[in-house]
Amino acid sequence: MEDMTCGRPTKAGTPCWNRRISNRTAGCQNHATELERATEAAYWEGYRDGMRAGEEHGRQAARWEAERELREAEARETASRNHRERTPDGRQIVTVERGYAYAMPPGISVAVGDQVSIPAPYWHGSSAPPQRVTVTALGSSYTGSLVTAYPG
Ligand SMILES: [Zn+2]
User: Disordered: where is this region (predicted)?
Assistant: First the structure.
């Protein structure tokens, strides 16, 4: 096995027993020459460049994939944790086409596929007629306050 000790003379006159910086240098951290340090630095520079060129793309892709999966898992977990089919006062919650959630009036329940009327968006003006949309799911993971939808 290669001798990895520095071996350069110390102040005490004995050979230095420190480990060489690497197998590219003859000296240890204390005794390496400028040339050895430059050689070592150039090696790592090249190594990093090689890593960047050769592997960065793959590593970045793997990182994005892992982050995306994590975000999706978190979103699923949050959605299932927040999913509720009734408001605190017992009204049915429905999700309609376009994904928005509404609460039905007290005592009224609808099924998936039923039509409900929802208020027109405010930018249609306060006199705009309600819009008819289809219930696409019962319940919602939306946690904000819900506008009321009416059957039919
Ligand atoms: Zn040394």
Answer: 72-92
Measure 42 CA to ligand 1 centroid, in angstroms. 21
What string of pLDDT tens digits covers the 152 residues of the chain?
567 999 998 888 899 999 999 988 889 999 999 989 998 998 888 888 877 777 777 778 888 888 998 999 999 998 889 999 999 999 999 999 989 999 999 999 999 999 999 998 888 888 889 999 999 999 999 988 899 999 98
- Which residues sit with Cβ closer than 5 angstroms to ligand 1, an ion? 6, 8, 16, 18, 28, 30-31
